[in-house]
Amino acid sequence: MSDTQSTSRGEVWIAALSGNAPSLSGYPRSVQVTDIEMGGRPARLIAVVPDADSAFPRARNGEVGLLEGWSLARAVHEAIDADREASVKRAIIAIVDTPSQAYGRREEAFGIHQALAGAAAAYATARLQGHPVIALLVGKAMSGAFLAHGYQANRILALADPGVLVHAMGKEAAARITLRSVEDLEAFAATVPPMAYDIDSYATLGMLWRTIPVQHTATPDAEDLAAVSDALEEALADIDADPHRDLRGRFAGENRGATRRVRAALASQWQG
Amino acid sequence: MSRTALLSRESFVELGARARAQVLLDAGSSRELAGPFDRLTSPWLERQGVVPQGDDGVVVAKGTIDGHSSVVLAIEGAFQGGSLGEVGGAKIAGALELAAEDNRQGIPTRAVILFETGGVRLQEANLGLATIAEIHSAIVDLRRYQPVIGVIAGQVGCFGGMSIAAGLCSDLVVTREARLGLNGPAVIEQEAGIGEYDSRDRPFIWGFTGGEQRIATGQADRFVDDDSAVIRGVVAELIATPARSAYRSERYAEYLRRLAEYDARHQPTPETVRQIFGDKS
């Protein structure tokens, strides 16, 4: 277990990429928003980070809860509004290190699903309106939290590191819900790529644009920072050169053949 | 409701996904796309000891509703709890994208999504999650042109990443049987303990996440009886209206302001939520 006093990966990377620029005021402490220059254009960095003092006890460890979901929506919509007349729309970069959405009574009562819809819609709208949107996975990218913060990006990049993982549910809960043991679940994860928790298996599904090798994921040095900055700038150039603002670049993975077959069938049958 | 009225109405909740789609589409207009004869079954279930189903639990039916070009996406709650895997998810996302493309070509195709789902199919975990992100993207794209109507009839309800999809719809129709929430009750109990959330306490669960509460707190738009003719009428009315210019999912300023009124030191009751989120006009 990591020390709860230590700085989260999300905090470390947003500080590193922004040269320790202060986060915009007016947001909850758990949502850090920083405006920088990247590759000669404005960019907004957004990270969800732990707040041990949050009034919401189920959202103190970096989970995306009610305040986080709606605040992400705000951070993105304010960028969209500010750039409405701009010829170059600022890049929006989601730095992803979220253990999960918040699981709690308060959250369901006040419609956490709608807060997360607010965030997902904001990122999707930014992308559709021409903002380059990038997700940079530096830690966990779990389930509803990732849907709200990162999964609507034009390009998804991940640090090549065992601590970076994408999944729909933690192992214990997933085992209970599917009425299997954790051991069974782990056995399936080893042979069924979409069940696996590691980033290399995830890469075979096709959603990742690139993985970035770094030496010190939790405490990046100048070389690590340069590698990530270069990759982000290359992603921006790749988005600029892409006439499409949708997610079609995700369907080519070796383990997404069924997706391609479904889409081909729909397209050929659509006009009666 | 009188006994005669109860006997004459047809329950929508009791219908399967295919029959629900038929109820909504004009008689004789419906065609199923990527259906059971296209052999598009899940490539992941058999090796985990689960028997796949020919339609993977999702029906894509294209036709007209009161003459308007429409596609109905009906999730079958009886297959694997309405969970979305790679194939079923790709059917919904792909059909919504084709409907958006229709609109860009001048054909005003609308969409109706019949939610009956626990969210991601955990046996296809990361591909279920990916297709749900693609569904979110496609709803946000299509709703700019034409309404995307969500219906939660029951009895599975609408949970997980698909509850976010419901939160993106232009309008959301619910029954008394409906439940809408991000996390399923059993998962919250597992993660947070029975003191936080008792998954077996039905009045507690419906009190917070049931259709009646979601309507009273502005998280859904239309409350309907479990009656096929009534639901068809409401859906037909909603899809015939122009696309919205503003959505619930964009109201961050209002939601943040209202949440600031809630003292989070205390667990809320359903009444707390009605006071803070209810209509104050």
Topology:
The complex is a heterodimer of chains A (about 270) and B (about 280).
Chain A: H1 9-17, E1 31-38, E2 41-48, H2 66-82, E3 91-98, H3 105-109, H4 112-128, E4 133-142, H5 143-148, E5 155-160, E6 165-167, H6 171-177, H7 182-191, H8 199-203, E7 210-213, H9 222-240, H10 257-269
Parallel strand pairs in A: 2-3, 3-4, 4-5, 4-6, 5-7
Antiparallel strand pairs in A: 1-2
Chain B: H1 3-8, H2 17-24, E1 31-33, E2 58-65, E3 68-75, H3 86-104, E4 110-115, H4 125-142, E5 148-152, H5 161-168, E6 171-174, H6 185-192, H7 202-209, H8 211-216, E7 222-223, H9 228-239, H10 252-259, H11 270-277
Parallel strand pairs in B: 3-4, 4-5, 5-6, 6-7
Antiparallel strand pairs in B: 1-2, 2-3
Helix pairs in contact in B: 3-4, 4-5
| Low-confidence regions of chain A | none
Query: What structural class is derived from the secondary structure elements of chain A?
Result: alpha/beta
How many separate structural domains of chain A? 1
The chain pair with the largest interface is: A-B, 81 and 85 residues
Report on the structure:
The complex is a heterodimer of chains A (272) and B (281). Helices cover 40% and strands 17% of the residues of chain A. Chain A is of the alpha/beta class. In chain A, strand 4, helix 5 and strand 5 (155-160) form a beta-alpha-beta unit. In chain A, helix 6 (171-177) packs across helix 7 (182-191). The longest helix of chain A has 19 residues, at 222-240. The radius of gyration of chain A is 19 Å and the shape is globular. With 281 residues, chain B is α/β, with parallel strands linked by helices. Helices cover 39% and strands 13% of the residues of chain B. The chains are: A alpha/beta (272), B alpha/beta (281). Chains A and B meet through helix 2, helix 3, helix 4, helix 5 and helix 6 of A and helix 3, helix 4, helix 5, helix 6 and helix 10 of B.
